[in-house]
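PROTOCOL LOG
Step 1. Enter all chains and additional molecules of the complex.
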Amino acid sequence: MTVETAEAPIFRDSEADRRHRAKWWTGRVVLYGALILWAVICLFPIYWTVTTAFKLQKDLLQGSVVPWLEYAPSWKGFASIGLSPDTIGIEMTPREEFLKRFMNSLIVSLSSSVLAVALGSLAAYGLSRFSYKFAWMRNDDISFFFLSQLILPPVVLALPFLVLYKALGLLDTRIGLILLTTLSVLPIVIWIMRDQFAGIPTELEEAALVDGLSVWGAFLTIILPIALPGMVAALILSLVLTWNEYFFAALLTSTHANTLPVMVASQTGSQGINWWSMAALSTAAILPLVVLGVALERFIIKGMAAGAVK
Amino acid sequence: MSTSDRLHVVTADDLPPSRVAFGRTIIWASGLLLLLSFALQTAQALHWVDLGLTTWRPTLYAYLVWAVCLCWGQVLMRGEQGKRVLFVLPAVLFVVSLTVFPLLFGILIALSDWNLSNPDGRKFNGTANIVRMWNDPFYWNALGNMVWYCLAIVVEYAIAFGLALMLNAQIRARKFFRVAFLLPLMLSPVAVSWMVGKSILDVRLGPIAQLSQWLGLGQPSFFGDPVVAMLTIMAMDAWTFIPFMMIMLLAGLQAIPQEVQEAARVDGASGWRGFWEVTFPLMLPVSVTAILIRVIFKLKLADIVITVTSGGPGGATDTVTSFIYREYRDRSNVGYGTLLAMVYLVIIIVAMTVLMKVADRFVRPRT
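Step 2. Run joint prediction.
Step 3. Record the structure below.
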């Protein structure tokens, strides 16, 4: 690492120093070049999705990329789902349709994330503090049992659930979908929260217990507030995963409870694809998460980094 | 038993016998209720009695009542110890009832011929599905594809490691790059793969095709040739999941003490050598965890394939999950699909166990 010093005219860099500086500059250029290249790879599809939503057919055929310069942005894409400024006031079936799917996505992802964080935090706390014995299973076995659910591919459960839900009348209901998405994120939540609780010293609860609180009282009033950032991280990570969940939703829902990804995937009309409406839908599907990601990036990184480093 | 608890609690539990008896009663009573409703509904399903029930919901409700009574009964019967069990019991009940039971039920389905649109219902057909699987070239093809997909993780890992190193270097606008690199993971793979797979990679109008024509490389085809199609799917999946590995590796890099790097530099190991002899060995445990988790996620790969290529051309991009999904959508036969999924599960469990053992052996001698 070179230290930038004020250049006085009397001191001249030796040949070796100059070479060193040139090398440092090349390194910087390569580094920033690579960073910017990857940032473009990451952001271009998002840019393309959002801008395509404002294009007309002729702009698409010409392959325009830059708005205002190459084409005039239009609201046609958003008008097709009833979200453009001139259609927002009018009653429209496409918008009703879209809002229904959007609400389904929102309800399913929120409730399953909250349920997973509640169940997962309790289990992780219990496993980090007490020793259990269910039949032959001890703490490590129970932890492994929870985490091993991660390996289970959704397709193994999908068809039995299809049959079971049909028998139980839960097919195409939000509750049925919530149960399955909760199950799919629960191992991840337990993984993150186990790490969180293990980092909190037990002396805190011991003090609380001496002061007369019960085990649950100590958990709710002392430990929960300390573990809150970890829980938020777990909640956000589950929100992201459940919002994007496609496989179960595609298989188990049809008309009432299907979510936004299912709606996006089923947009092939008989006369080809309406790119602008497709792009507007995709934009609506990814925008909440772009906002979430930019605003709460710190929590997501914290959630994913937990457990990686022991 | 509570001697090895990390949190040691001494409580004087003298539970009145009536309370213990009450706890036992509600557990047994609700258990009996569950058994009774299950028996009655089975009788109805076999057309022995007619109760006028259309779904199995009553059994579900009885199960819920039993689960609540079981939790409550623990506290009544075992006092303080029961309250501790209450932390883990709900999650255990939830997972067991949603995985173990459907899995057992799945074995039953796997050995039968069951077309959901057929009014005859389930027909036990023994090993016929297994024979059919053995002779199904598309299933073996999908399994072979999964091996290729998993091998692509090596490239993803190399890129993710490079990105993590860059984010860990002294750079400006670190926050911007971190957010930008993280975003692909957050976005719905279905929505993005629609836009990327069908619009950006469009052979006539897409920006990539235009760029390649402008450069005089001719018109590319991304989903025509089997190998290119698979590489495209791999690239799209990598785009989504590289940030995931990157974050884990970045956390690992940040956990390496600064002194270690400095000591290595003093000893003359800088740049390339310092990386291979100091950073990389220290990162091995994190790398193994990241790769293992990535493999697990890769084995579930389906939504991109289903939306973009639906397995084409000629099954070249099929994953096991997308194949079973289509198998069900086309023929609505749950029996055969479930058998394929069960076999896949067994293969995964065996492969992951071997992989974890190998990884353990690989990491241990160096750390």
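Step 4. Note key features.
Chain A touches chain B through 105 residues (CB under 8 Å).
The mean pLDDT of chain A is 83.
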